Amino acid sequence: MLNIDRHTALQMDREDPLAPLRQQFSLPDAVIYLDGNSLGAMPKTAMLRAQQVINQEWGTDLIKSWNKAGWFDLPSRLGNLLAPLIGAKADEVVVTDSTSINLFKAIAAALQMQAQHAQRKVIVTERSNFPTDIYMAEGLTRWLDKGYRLHLVDTPEELNRAINNETALVMLTHVNYRTGYLHDMTAITAHAHSQGALALWDLAHSAGAVPVDLHHAKADFAVGCTYKYLNGGPGAPAFIWVPQHHQAAFNHPLTGWWGHANPFAMQPGFAATAGIRRALCGTQPIVSLAMVESGLQVFAQTTMNAIRKKSLALTDLFIALVESRCQQHPLQLVTPRQHAQRGSQASFTHPHAYSVMQALIERGIIGDYREPAIMRFGFTPLYTQFVDVWDAVEGLREILDHQAYSLNAERNAVT
Ligand SMILES: *Cc1c(COP(=O)(O)O)cnc(C)c1O
Known about the structure:
Blueprint: H1 6-14, E1 25-26, E2 32-33, E3 42-43, H2 44-60, H3 65-68, H4 74-82, E4 93-95, H5 99-113, E5 122-126, H6 131-144, E6 149-153, H7 156-162, E7 167-173, H8 185-194, E8 198-202, H9 214-217, E9 221-224, E10 239-241, H10 244-247, H11 286-299, H12 304-325, E11 332-333, E12 345-349, H13 353-362, E13 365-366, E14 368-370, E15 374-378, H14 386-401
Parallel strand pairs: 2-13, 5-6, 5-7, 7-8, 8-9
Antiparallel strand pairs: 1-3, 4-10, 9-10, 11-12, 12-15, 14-15
Helix pairs in contact: 1-14, 2-11, 4-11, 5-6, 12-14
Bound molecules: pyridoxal-5'-phosphate.
């Protein structure tokens, strides 16, 4: 039996340098929130910012706010605040649109950059990638109807072998949404480049969760969510990164007026603006976009290395406690044990995973369920406490020991 009790967990919280940051989030008392990987918690300043945007900027200043309140520049200003978290430079990131749409732009631009190599027709990705990433690539290649195809791989070895001189693009998610498997971005990108392929990384489960250094990895493009670990709010706009050396060649088909060199000249004929703003399409959802800043302001008070250290301590503790306190139950860890391969979550399979997760949620222990038979627990060092880990495992143990879950739990639309 692991020699950690609840007092030890409380002691770990007292010694945790990130503990004070939890005060900056609005979290209900009776809830242990282990789903910040799906929807981040609300920074308290978001409420004030929402009131300011709606009452003052919209309600009072009206149209003047496009200039006066900086609405027009907001996608780039937020991109510059986000850049240090992912190893991007200034003026390389915009916060805009959804991850799905940004994937579409990046895949389209990458295929066009490779178009002079007639044999490069393949996009390599993983079958276990988040479905929308695969769907967007499928939709674009089918629509182009130029012989592009997807190669879906199942293992890291297969991935290495699949990348060859027919590969146009390697499109991967850095941290797998289901298992929490963390790819070696630098090594895979180097291999892709050695074969003449470009590398597009989806950072949905890594931005704000693990240290990312896009320039060090020599990645070509990246996209990601702000509503998960970055705490930007439900459906908050996503981001897209194009490094300076690729910007001039970055041409995507969603050529709306916000990507135009001179949008208010109102001229027919599209001419892409220089720089990262060419990745924009049209008018942004300003109220939602403005909330992203509140999440980023919390990150500005710490470092990704400090966050990573606590994240690994939280997931290590959770895994160790589940495996010792629930050992007689058929739980199987699907998250890598090696730190170098682990994101900021821990996932376990159980034959009745959906029902057990519903019972946990009823007790206020909020994780989520992912097919097939996976209970997923996300750990967000800005506000997850060590005692939350202890209490969550205790809740899980009680539910399993007493079979306190209903096998005919109804499936909600969102699991
Ligand atoms: C969450 C997630 C998405 C979500 O895309 P949306 O367009 O915001 O719905 C996409 N890709 C990955 C890898 C994700 O984890």
